[in-house]
Write a structure and sequence with these properties.
Keywords: Kinase, Transferase. The protein is of the alpha/beta class. Helix content is about 50%, strand content about 20%.
């Protein structure tokens, strides 16, 4: 229908997938579209825009609109992975504007936030809480009873993401080469990692690390092999998982301290593949957090991140 106006476009632009939805003023979803990773730091700017456009055009079609016809929305809110600095904001806001233009969407108001904040709002329903995410990357977000927010981590795979699947996989590569040097004891990691990467020796592993085949998502997949080795009692793998849990705890502790929540009741939510699937890391982390902040209440995720984006967008509608 030409000239139609939609109240809200909400986009969860994550590092794994992109989800775009159109809603009415009550938050009822009327059109949904999905795409791939929107994190420009790992996929590149052009690919990030392509996935945003893909998701929004699919959502327009489900809404009953032609992908090539201009659609007006009153407010468009984007929760975007990779938004960590002022420089990132400049880049991502530019990508968002380009994606909206290519998707033929005209927004009266555009808001761009980090996807971690959106995930926190969706997970806690806006109540005081701390969200600790450890998937391919890692980050901690928190909000206290006064509405003040804080974060720790999320600095990306080059200088951060401690405790994440990528970080665990990277430690496995280091352990294999340190064992080759004789700097640490035997490990079963080489026996698992080399065949997984279709490599025959540690020397080939070294060459792979510095080749064009090296990918963040592939290294993150190695975290599963570390877990397998740890279950068999491999000392090196156990040390890696212990260190991962400790690094995640340091991030959680920093946020709790910043927000003055050490002695107050708040919701603690753990999200991401590492914390949902690795019982060793999850148990060690929760034990340390409960000792540090005894009044925290561990809860399961209530809503997906997109609902946090929607809630934020609805609050901004005129």
């Amino acid at each position: 229908m030409k000239g139609r106006s939609i109240p809200l476009l909400a986009v969860d632009g994550g590092g794994t997938k992109c989800l775009a939805v159109f809603t009415d003023r009550q938050g009822k979803i009327e059109g949904t579209g999905r795409g791939g990773s929107c994190n420009y730091q790992t996929t590149g700017k052009e690919a990030a825009v392509d996935e945003l456009v893909r998701a929004m055009k699919i959502a327009k079609e489900e809404l009953g609109e032609s992908p090539d016809e201009t659609l007006r929305v009153e407010c468009a809110v984007f929760g975007m992975a990779g938004l960590d600095t002022g420089y990132d904001r400049q880049i991502i806001e530019g990508l968002v504007r380009e994606a909206l233009s290519r998707a033929e969407i005209r927004a009266d108001r555009v808001v761009v936030e980090n996807d971690g904040l959106a995930a926190l709002l969706g997970a806690t329903d806006g109540k005081p809480g701390v969200l600790l995410i450890a998937g391919t990357g890692s980050i901690v977000y928190g909000v206290n009873g006064q509405g003040r927010s804080a974060r720790a981590g999320g600095w990306g795979y080059r200088v951060g993401d401690e405790g994440s699947a990528y970080w665990i996989g990277k430690q496995a590569l280091t352990a294999i080469l340190q064992t080759l040097d004789g700097r640490q004891g035997p490990t079963s990691l080489a026996r698992r990692v080399l065949p997984y990467l279709d490599l025959r020796s540690e020397e080939e592993l070294y060459n792979w690390v510095y080749s064009a085949d090296y990918r963040v998502d592939t290294v993150a997949e190695l975290s599963l092999l570390v877990s397998d080795s740890a279950r068999e009692g491999d000392a090196s793998s156990l040390r890696i998982l212990e260190a991962a849990a400790d690094e995640l705890f340091y991030g959680g502790r920093a946020v709790i301290e910043k927000l003055g929540m050490t002695d107050t009741s708040f919701t603690l939510i753990l999200q991401g593949g590492v914390l949902q699937n690795n019982e060793f890391v999850r148990s060690r982390l929760t034990k340390k957090l409960r000792e540090f902040a005894p009044s925290c209440n561990l809860e399961e995720i209530k809503k997906e991140p997109i609902y946090g984006v929607i809630a934020q967008g609805l609050s901004l509608l005129p």
